[in-house]
Design a protein that fits this description.
By secondary structure, this protein is an all-alpha fold. The chain has a domain at 10-18 and 276-349. The chain has 16 helices and no strands. The chain has helices at residues 2-11, 19-30, 35-47, 56-86, 92-105, 113-133, 137-160, 162-173, 177-181, 196-208, 215-238, 242-250, 255-270, 277-288, 290-307, 318-339. α4 crosses α5, α4 packs antiparallel against α6 (113-133) and α7 runs antiparallel to α10 (196-208).
């Protein structure tokens, strides 16, 4: 799903001449953004489980070290890719300088932001596990409700009404600058790492049965949130509301995304489908390659769109986008599977 999301993101630029198709792709892309918080919820379900042993030694030597090494090495390799294939001007000194600066300030390819999130989650995991170790149902639901209000609903409302509130704040404070820049950031906040801890705890709560969502409620909730998101997205485009548009397509704290993701994860967690050995084995193999696929698929997409300058609109339209996504995923899985046979390299994919 991440591959599909990034394929649409890179190809939608070529559809600007066709507003209808462009809106369709943006809508589909928006409905795939749930993949990231769902993965965070799965991380919470696994790592917050009190029955799972996770000491500091294992945390740092296996989980954190792997991600940090991947961050440094792939930042270097991706810069080499750009220098050789796009800039056509390779200078090892400049590449090395870029690498250490980029690791500190995240100047590398956009999808690498997720590695920083993983490092933060892993570093905070002992504290998060201490919270869930003896927590009861009422307390964790209270915690999640509190985080939903302060990390999702209030930030969303603040962004939407920031301009209007700016005029009110200017009148009250006597500072006219707020009329132009909008209201200052809210101070009624909870200072945690944005909305992602909420997804962690939600994944744990659903997995442990502390948050039980009936199948019909979860299904209707996921569908309703998806439908409302598409309607709001189209309204923001037609009504020229860039702030709302940005919140919908790029904010993981968007309230409908939070609710819809929790409902969707609940559906996945509680589904009891018939066992299909071939399919289950295939999914297990893909799961083993998931980290490497996430990292390396962008190299394939970047080669197609940035190096070759492929225009999806002129070469098949929407079908081309789907084809590139499927092809990129397939090629990346095969490459990662082969790389896993190489000592030392296998730890980074």
């Amino acid at each position: 799903m991440i591959v599909f999301l990034h394929t649409i993101t890179l190809s939608v630029e070529s559809f600007k001449g066709e507003p209808a198709l462009s809106k369709l792709l943006v809508s589909v892309r928006t409905l795939t953004i749930w993949a990231v918080p769902c993965f965070v919820m799965a991380t919470g379900a696994l790592l917050l489980d009190e029955n799972r042993e996770l000491g500091l030694k294992k945390l740092f030597s296996k989980l954190i070290l792997r991600v940090v090494l991947a961050l440094v090495i792939y930042t270097f390799l991706f810069k080499c890719f750009d220098a050789l294939l796009i800039d056509k001007d390779f200078d090892l000194g400049q590449v090395l300088d870029f690498t250490w600066v980029s690791v500190l300030y995240s100047f590398s390819w956009k999808h690498m932001w997720y590695l920083y999130l993983l490092i933060a989650i892993y570093l905070m995991m002992p504290a998060y596990r201490a919270v869930t170790k003896n927590i009861d149902r009422k307390t964790i639901l209270y915690l999640m409700g509190l985080m939903f209000v302060f990390l999702s609903v209030l930030p969303f409302m603040h962004e939407i009404f920031k301009s209007d509130m700016g005029s009110i704040v200017s009148n009250i404070s006597g500072d006219d600058s707020y009329s132009e820049i909008g209201a200052p950031d809210l101070r009624i906040v909870i200072y945690v790492s944005k909305v992602f801890p909420l997804f962690l705890f939600a994944g744990y709560a659903v997995n442990k049965g502390l948050l039980k969502i009936p199948f019909t409620v979860a299904l209707s909730g996921a569908v309703s949130c998806a439908g409302a998101t598409v309607l709001l997205l189209q309204w923001s485009i037609l009504g020229d509301k860039p702030v709302l548009y940005k919140e919908i397509v790029s904010s993981y704290s968007f309230p409908l995304l939070v609710i819809g993701t929790v409902c969707l994860f609940s559906l996945f967690r509680n589904s009891k489908g018939k066992e299909i050995k071939v399919l289950d084995r295939l999914c297990a193999e893909i799961e083993k390659c998931s980290f490497g696929v996430f990292i390396l698929h962008m190299a394939v997409l970047r080669y197609i769109f940035a190096v070759q300058g492929f225009n999806a609109y002129e070469h098949g339209g929407v079908l081309a986008v789907f084809g590139i996504a499927v092809g990129t995923f397939t090629v990346t899985v095969i490459v990662v599977r082969l790389l896993k046979y190489i000592p030392y390299v296998r730890a980074l994919v």
